[in-house]
Amino acid sequence: MTAALTIDGVGVDFAGFKAVNNVSMIIEEGELRVLLGANGAGKTTLMDLISGKTESTQGRVFLYDTDITNLEEHRIARAGIGRKFQIPSVFKELTVRRNLEVASCRNPAVLANLGFGFSRQAHARVDEVLELTGLSEDADALAANLSHGQTQWLELGLLIVQNPKVLLLDEPTAGMTQAETHRTSQIINGLKGRHTILVVEHDMAFVREIAERITVMHLGQVLADGNVGEIERNEKVREAYLGSRSIR
Amino acid sequence: MLSRRAKLIGRAITLCTTTALLVCTVIAVLFLSAFLRFDAPIPVALLFIAAMLCAPLLVGDFWLNRIAKYLVYGMLGIAMAISWGYAGILNLGQGLFFGLGAYMLAMSLKLASTTSLQQGSDKPVPDFMLWNAEPGAPTQLCCITKASFLWLPFQSQWFGLAMGIVLPTLVALGLGLIIFRKRIAGVFVSIITLAFVLLVRLVMIDAQPVTNGFNGLTDLGWFKLAGFEFDPFLVQTYYLVAASLAVVLVASRMLMETRAGLVLQAIRDDQNRARYLGFDVPLYQTFFFAVSAAIAGFAGMLYVIVAEFASPTFMDLTFSISMVVWAAVGGRASLLGACIGAILINTISATVSETEGFAEAWKAIIGFIFVIVVLYLPHGLAGLGHDLIDRLVSRRGAAPSRLDVASRRNGVQPAE
Question: What is the ipTM of this complex?
Answer without folding.
Answer: 0.90
